[in-house]
């Protein structure tokens, strides 16, 4: 079954070797990985998610997804493989495993965190069933034998019909993590992982009438604002928003992520934390009603249509670079939280869980929030190695009496996607 690209255009053409648009999900299990059980789980999962079994092909001067019936690759290694190559059987996803860890790499244009979590839920069901020879409950898990509806397959943005016109807005340039601090970037993609008890963080969050995502947004913004009081530019984070509900397509597998812009104004530092959280929640509420989300979808759709109208890969790659540069002048940081993972009965076999991808630009930070098996993990992903902003954030946690564990800094390693335009960069 042939699929035309649409929402995939921007992540595809924005991919470079330095910033591959891939996601890496790393799952540390309680026991050593049994390869045969993982092979079984991957094969069964791919039967349930056939729209992920594709390869890129060129047709009429435009890329398409064509069915790829080759087996998805699993390597017993720490490196994994390059996607869209012979080593990945020309798939845009692959697995690797070592010791007690399973690593899943996938092109971010195929799906987002919400879609990836669904896939992992299925994978863990089959893996744990086989590995531990147990029968797990099936409720809330997509399994082989389910009817796969058109809603799962079809791109809801391409088929959205008439959408409300986007509102034209202008905002001052936000706080820049490099320009406004004097930090010299070493271009070293780095991850700092912070682990917190889910019970403790949720108690603190509820006491302040917040949600995990808004609380992290406030604490990070407050840390920057208070540490650089002489900077006039406001800290502005974008909180990722799942667009499926507004599109009335909750089962869609595509990457359907918009954002709510949360601006920390200077005067906010003088009000209590609970009031700061309320201000951010009000901003989220104002930007996540159905009409506002659909306006954002329409804005993105216009960009995808521009990609489709272009004639060459070089034009599309240049346009993607301009869009990314525009992003760097719009936000200070990105906060992403899919929600509590809820990997069902398999979750008790997980020791730790991470989702990594690239920040949207070279001068912004991405905080990926995961909630798995009683723990929050904040993966602070940045295109430089300095811990300066991590330390400021951790200091906010300390001031609020929140206990945490900071893991050693790690190099951000993501699967490259072999494409004609990213061989040099």
Give a written overview of the molecule.
This protein is α+β, with helices and mostly antiparallel strands and about 425 residues long. It is about 30% helix and about 20% strand. The chain has eleven helices and 16 strands. Helix 6 (about 210-225) packs across helix 8 and helix 6 (about 210-225) crosses helix 11. The longest helix has 20 residues, at about 115-130. The two termini are about 35 Å apart. The mean pLDDT is about 95.
List the helices and strands and how they pair.
Blueprint: E1 3-4, H1 9-13, E2 22-29, H2 35-48, E3 54-59, E4 62-67, E5 74-75, E6 93-98, E7 101-107, H3 113-132, H4 150-153, E8 190-197, H5 198-207, H6 212-227, E9 235-242, H7 244-247, E10 257-264, H8 273-287, H9 290-309, H10 313-328, E11 333-337, E12 350-356, E13 365-372, E14 375-382, H11 388-399, E15 405-406, E16 410-411
Helix pairs in contact: 2-3, 6-8, 6-11
């Amino acid at each position: 079954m042939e699929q035309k690209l649409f929402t995939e255009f921007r992540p595809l053409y924005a991919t470079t070797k330095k910033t591959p648009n891939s996601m890496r999900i790393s799952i540390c299990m309680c026991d050593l990985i049994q390869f045969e059980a993982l092979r079984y789980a991957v094969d069964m999962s791919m039967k349930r998610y056939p729209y992920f079994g594709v390869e890129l092909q060129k047709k009429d001067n435009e890329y398409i997804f064509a069915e790829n019936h080759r087996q998805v690759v699993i390597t017993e290694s720490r490196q994994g493989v390059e996607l869209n190559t012979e080593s990945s059987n020309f798939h845009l996803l692959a697995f690797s495993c070592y010791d007690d860890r399973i690593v899943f790499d996938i092109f971010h244009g195929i799906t987002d965190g919400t879609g990836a979590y669904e896939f992992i839920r299925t994978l863990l069901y089959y893996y744990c069933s086989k590995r531990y020879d147990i029968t797990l409950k099936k409720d809330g898990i997509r399994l082989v034998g389910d009817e796969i509806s058109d809603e799962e397959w079809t791109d809801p943005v391409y088929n959205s019909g008439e959408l409300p016109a986007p509102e034209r807005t202008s905002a001052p340039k936000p706080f820049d993590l490099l320009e406004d601090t004097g930090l010299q970037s070493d271009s070293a993609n780095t991850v700092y992982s912070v682990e917190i008890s889910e019970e403790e963080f949720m108690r603190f969050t509820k006491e302040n009438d917040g949600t995990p995502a808004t609380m992290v947004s406030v604490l990070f913004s407050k840390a920057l604002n208070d540490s650089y009081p002489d900077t006039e530019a406001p800290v502005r984070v974008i909180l990722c928003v799942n667009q499926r509900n507004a599109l009335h397509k909750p089962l869609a597998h595509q990457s359907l992520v918009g954002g709510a812009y949360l601006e920390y104004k200077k005067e906010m530092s003088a009000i209590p934390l609970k009031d700061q959280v309320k201000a951010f929640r009000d901003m989220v509420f104002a930007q996540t009603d159905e009409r506002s989300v659909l306006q954002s979808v329409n804005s993105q759709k216009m960009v995808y249509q521009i990609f489709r109208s272009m004639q060459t890969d070089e034009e599309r790659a240049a346009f993607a670079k301009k869009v990314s540069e525009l992003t760097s002048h719009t936000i200070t940081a990105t906060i992403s939280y899919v929600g509590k993972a809820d990997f069902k009965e398999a979750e008790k076999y997980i020791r730790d869980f991470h989702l990594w991808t690239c920040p949207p630009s070279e001068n912004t930070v991405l905080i990926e929030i995961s909630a798995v098996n009683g723990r929050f993990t904040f993966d602070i992903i940045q295109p430089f190695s300095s811990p300066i902003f991590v330390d400021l954030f951790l200091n906010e946690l300390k001031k609020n009496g929140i206990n945490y564990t900071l893991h050693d800094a790690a190099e951000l390693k993501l699967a490259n996607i072999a494409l004609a335009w990213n061989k040099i960069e």
